[in-house]
Amino acid sequence: MPSPHDTLAPRISAAIAAAFGEDFRDADPVLRPSQFADLQVNAALALSKRVGMPPRKVAESIVEHLDVADLCSGVEISGPGFINVTLADSWIAAAVVEMAGDPRLGVEIQPQLVIPIDYSAPNVAKEMHVGHLRTTVVGDALARTLEHLGHRVIRQNHVGDWGTPFGMLVEHLLDVGEGSEAARLVETDPNAFYAAAREKFDGGAEFADRSRARVVALQAGDPETVRVWESLLGLSKKYFNRIYSTLGVTLTDADLAGESMYNDDLASICDELQAKGIAVESEGALCIFMDEFTGREGKPVPLIIRKSDGGYGYATTDLATIKYRVERLHADKILYVVGAPQALHFQMVWAAARLAGWLPSDVVPIHVQIGNVLGEDKKILRTREGVALKLMALLDDGVTKARAYVDEARPDLSETERATIARQVGIGAIKYADLSVAHDSAYVFDLDRMVSLTGNTGPYLQYAAARVRSIFRSAGEDVTGVPRAVEVREPAERALGLQLLEFGSVVRHVGHELEPHRLAAYLFELAQAFSSFYEHCPVLKAEGSVRESRLALCSLTAAVMVQGLDLLGVETPTEM
Fold it and tell me: Does any domain span residue 379?
């Protein structure tokens, strides 16, 4: 079901074509909300030079040919040539009823694309820290939204599970015993396990020699070494899943696609690139030089795919991943939800893949750049000791903060109910704070602000949804209920109806532009519109058709809030 914007735009284009000819149908009229009307059309200024007429005359010609009698109650020209459009109350009411009867709430299914999404990407036997929060949360919101739009999303959790550190980690696991408490640290406190292994490696030549030999055995596929390595991975999976379960993200073991998955392909990747003349030897390393990537004094910057010691780096693995995702997964679009500093690296990898023929022109790779999480000092959020803050500690703090609020506000609820709400609110607050900011921007992590019930916060939106449900509990009715007729009489009803009707176009925009913060902003505006409606339009005290209409608006608001927050990965408590 088209939004008001989507309904009006083709009619404006048709009016332009009727007024000035079919050659002008491609004019892109800008429609935006205005303080003077529901939508303001800004087309005359852009067309003025093309048609050789003053902007206001252009606007008059467009209005003369504009067929919107069934849609609008008023069309006026203002200023130098703006067209102010007021939608008819009857059209808004009918559109809201149509949306309420649509199980998809106006979100249309799109032609399906295959879209692998590379996100989260923690390291085996290492703690997930605050830096992993944004890639995990943003990636999951995009995966949910794109799936809802009808695309086939393939989650790719590119975990760090291969390389020289694993000789040290495997050897340490053998030393402490695979079933020991020390081994279980991989699952409960992976940094402690890693630190213990590193201390032994740095402090003893004998252990270091064994570790280096173990790397060789691992890379050679020695069965016993591979078995122990897999045991290490198994313990890390339990840790990852504890984080993912707490965060409420949709990643599973089936989505793991770590560096080890491509190990057997790296040599052939290098051989093929060298055979094609794309990669050349330089100072003992195998490199790709591309004219568009230069450093100081205009010298080309190398993309190193095989180091001088024969080892492979991230570039080689990333070339293997893109080849796999195109050839095996048949990707139409590939998303990399990764930190912004990796931008140049990805540009070089993709350029090399295109040279090799592994990345066809019709496959679009996109770097969804992730900004930093900052502390109050505007520096990357760290502990007082200067180390990256553990993600689980951060999540626990959020739940603890929320629990203090729930205990004070709802002592009437059971212990189990309060614990559930505290988890939903605490985790939701952290996720929403992240998602409400443009993904490529940094933001300051302020837990007190995040869990606040005022302002643009997750708890504010959750409370709005819970308040709608409380209206239906008071009425003794099901919030989903039966379809009801809608009447639009009051300004607050009108504003709420218009806001609801934009849901489908906002979700479509998020899927196209990959900007979850647009959905967060929409939901905040919807919550504000509902708050104004609730204040100015009594629901349960109203009678007859007015009561039924307002209950219909409440029901649709609840449905959109729940669906919208779910696309962001934020749960909605039934009461708060």
Answer: no
Give the Cα separation of 64 and 85 in Å (integer).
14
Place 383 in a pLDDT band, splitting at 50, 70 and 90: low
- Inter-axis angle of helices 266-275 and 314-327, to 10 degrees? 90
Between CA 504 and CA 560 the distance in angstroms is 10
Lowest model confidence (mean pLDDT) among 89-98, 126-135, 314-323, 552-561: 126-135
If we measure between CA atoms, which residue out of 348, 226, 253, 330 comes closest to residue 291? 348
Quickly list DSSP for 191-259: HHHHHHHHHHHHH-HHHHHHHHHHHHHHHTT-HHHHHHHHHHHHHHHHHHHHHHHHHT----GGGB--G
What are the φ and ψ backbone dihedral angles of 518, each rounded to 5 degrees?
-65, -40
* Separation between Cα atoms, residue 428 and residue 143, nearest integer Å: 17
Rounded mean pLDDT of the chain? Answer: 93
* Of 549, 554, 563, 462, nearest in space to 504 by CA: 563
The answer to whether the CB of 548 falls within 8 A of the CB of 485 is yes
* Mean pLDDT of the 353-382 span: 92
Convert 565-576 into a string of H (helix), E (strand) and C (coil).
HHHHCCCCCCCC
461: left (phi over 0), alpha (psi -120 to 50) or beta: alpha
Q: By residue range, what is the domain housing residue 236?
A: 165-251
Is the backbone of residue 177 left (phi > 0), alpha (psi -120 to 50) or beta? Answer: left
Q: What local confidence, expressed as pLDDT, does residue 375 receive?
A: 86
CATH code assigned at 72: 3.30.1360.70
**Nearest alpha-carbon partner for 427 in 403, 443, 444:** 403
Rounded to the nearest 5°, which phi and psi values hold at 572?
A: -120, 110
State how far the Cα of 383 lies from the Cα of 569, in Å rounded to an integer: 27
Give me the sign of the Cα torsion angle 193, 199, 201, 205. negative
Domain end, chosen from 38, 57, 86, is at 86
Q: Is 74 among the domain residues?
A: yes
From residue 482, give the alpha-carbon distance in Å to each of 478, 498, 545, 551, 555.
Answer: 9, 21, 14, 10, 10
The domain boundary, picked from 52, 68, 86, lies at 86
State how many domains the chain has.
2
pLDDT of residue 480: 80
The candidate with the shortest Cα–Cα distance to 325, out of 156, 140, 111, is: 156
* Residue 352 within a domain: no
Q: Cβ distance 510 to 145 under 8 Å?
A: yes
